[in-house]
Design goal:
With about 110 residues, the protein is α+β, with helices and mostly antiparallel strands. Helix content is about 60%, strand content about 15%. The protein is elongated, with a radius of gyration of 21 Å.
């Protein structure tokens, strides 16, 4: 019985990638990954911090790897200032790497 050569099919499998891998590759190629992660961070603030904090949050934006968050409640602002490191850990766990270097509550 003649053996078939399936080597050419094995090579094609290495070219196949998931949509996530393709998007990550595209973002890396165009050096947009940092900006994309910053936009995702702002968008996911409510999910990560919960409705209680999100309802007392005004503007949120990232500039030069610093997250600026407007807090509408003075006691909450005080409490969040003391919890910056914990919030940074939550963000790092969500994204799998460090997206921002600092958080400023104003």
């Amino acid at each position: 019985m003649k053996k078939r050569n399936f080597d050419k099919f094995d090579k094609r499998k290495s070219d196949i990638s998931s949509v996530k891998e393709a998007i990550d590759s595209l973002l890396d190629t165009y050096r947009l990954k940092g900006r994309f992660d910053e936009a995702r961070l702002v968008d996911s603030w409510t999910k990560l911090m919960g409705n209680t904090i999100a309802n007392r949050t005004g503007k949120i934006f990232v500039k030069d790897q610093v997250l600026f968050v407007e807090i509408l409640s003075a006691p909450l602002k005080h409490q969040l200032n003391h919890s910056k490191m914990e919030i940074m850990k939550i963000l790092e766990k969500e994204f799998g790497h460090k997206v921002i270097n600092e958080i400023l509550f104003y």
